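Checked the freezer inventory, then went back to the computational side. Two predictions to log before the end of the day. The first one is the construct we discussed on Monday; recording sequence and tokens without edits.
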Amino acid sequence: MATLAIMHARVSQVVVDCRDPQSLVRFWAALLGGDPVDRARGWSHVEPPGIVRLAFQPVAEDKTVKNRLHLDIEVDAIEPAITHALRLGATRIGETVTDDQGAFQVMADPEGNEFCFVSADAASASTAPAP
């Protein structure tokens, strides 16, 4: 039986399609930390402390449907994170939900890309029970 070589791979960045990379990178840098970098061909990126680089590539079309992939951002307390994100231009989607894993709140960045604030401590948020 032949042995297959094991491929060593790692995620080097998560790429977000967007209309305005220079603006969106500044939102994410303000939310997560790191310095926004504008690159060639309209791309931008940020390297938030402790997570993979987030890159933003320009596309002609607006976002029209729900993301198939989103970031879960672990926070100590959900409500202060929501308040901060709203000040930066995010949108809250629905109510905070509590389940047996903790609490989460769905949010959208200024271009409508969904992300969640999550906390293992359900007491860290004003919560609605999970459906």
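The second is the one RB wanted added to the comparison set:
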Amino acid sequence: MAVGDFFNKYFNNHSETKDKHWDSKLQTHYFKTTKDKAFEVVEGYFRKSQSCQIIAVSKEHGEISVNYKGGGKKAFVIVTIIMVKPFRTAIDLSITTESSIPFDLGYSHKLISKIYEDFKKELEYIGTP
């Protein structure tokens, strides 16, 4: 991890996933499923969670917006679900932490890892790019 990456990870209040991220934990995760099934599982995951409140759902755009309250912190989560091939669906996350200071000491980064681990329990994980 380069010095700039270290500061970006710990002294920032926003983290998001993408195909070519320097941190393998924040690379887009691919699952062996359809977009509709992934959407159903992801939406159900957030609906069941006591610490989450779904703000908006757009099946057409494959996006779910959520307010997350856990561990004494608040975060705004956007999940994007895209089927790139039949039975190969990408799930990306974007998380912004709300706090009085302009950084979250890696909280948004850790939250992405936790959410992906929970998704892997319900969807068949293929890998990252």
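For RB: The helical segments are 3-10, 35-48, 107-122. Strands lie at 14-16, 29-31, 52-58, 63-70, 73-85, 88-98, 125-127. Let me know if you want it refolded.
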